[in-house]
Amino acid sequence: MKTVYTLKDVEEMKSKGESLPAGAILTPQAKDAVKGMSLSVSAPKSSGKKEFLIPDFEYKWTAGADPKTQEELDRFFFSPRIQQLKKLIVDLGKRSYRKNYNDGNGGNFSVRVGDNLVLCTPTMISKGSMTVDDMCLVDMEGVQLCGTRKRTSEVLAHIAIMKRQPLCKACCHAHPPHATAFALAGKTPPRCVNPEAEIFIGQVGLADYGTPGTQKMADEVGEVGKTHDCVFMVNHGVMTWANEIEIAFWKMENVEAHSYTSLITLQLGGPRRFSDADAGEVLKIRSALGMVDQTKNPDFKECGLCDAPEFRQGSVCSAKQAAPNAGFSSDAEKIVAQITKMVIEQLGK
Fold this sequence. Notes:
- By secondary structure, the protein is an alpha+beta fold.
- It folds into 2 domains: 1-56, no CATH class; 70-267, 3-Layer(aba) Sandwich (L-fuculose-1-phosphate Aldolase), CATH 3.40.225.
- The protein is built from 11 helices and 10 strands.
- The protein has helices at residues 7-16, 28-35, 70-77, 80-98, 155-164, 177-185, 195-200, 215-225, 245-267, 276-288, 330-348, and strands spanning 4-5, 25-26, 108-114, 117-120, 136-138, 144-146, 170-174, 205-207, 230-233, 237-242.
- The strands form 2 sheets. It has an 8-stranded mixed sheet with strand order 6-5-4-3-7-10-9-8, sandwiched between helices. Strands 1-2 form a two-stranded parallel ribbon.
- It starts with a strand and ends with a helix.
């Protein structure tokens, strides 16, 4: 995979007299800088086959090179790369707010930007009205280092996952209504019915309730997030993580869409599950994309894609649930069906 070149990268290459490789992927600021530089571009290597790439926007840092003094921290906090990340978080906040994922000042975003550094959103602010100047920088204990607004208290839960799961570099917390409905009920959506949900989400984890912003909540979420890309925080909301913040937000969109369609499907008699063989193929795609390996979860059973029997029409799953309260009660399904029938009869009259 080709490297994404930042402003800092092209400036260093210019100072060393190096050339950009052909087809190099540049950040917007790097593109602007290259236009004003006499930076040469290497001739493309002829392979006889055109290469199509997926850009990699994961924030990468040099181990052991975190800024130390306040002056160094401030310079880092306002550096081009961090300013670019702040703009992305502001954009994601607006997108999240427009989708009705964040009520009031709810939800938060974070990106790990060093061995001991995390960029995050502030507390007590609508995600639809944030600006670049509102962002905060904290260490891996949640101590604020930079920014004028106070950091979100819930960054502790983000950090708890980052500490336990090296693949986690960015977190998104929100309250999307349909996924949060599952979380309030202490349930998770059905499995083996939606390939996109299986690839990007897999088994949703359930974290027991903890008061928002407390270390108890952080530890609950951190333990579950270690082996789950998506965590339903019981009686609270949803947390998703990835190696970059955009993908973490995509997972939030994915689990909300899956939860929404699952609730509608229940009114139509329940989802139709695809086969174990198909589930295995989906699992291969998930693995190829570098998603967290849920087979290492101690609760993993059989293929790891089995679902509650209430969701599997005419069949019974022999595996135990990956989450103890996952799925719906069959009695609840019958009640929904009965109410739906009554409504249709009344409309007919």
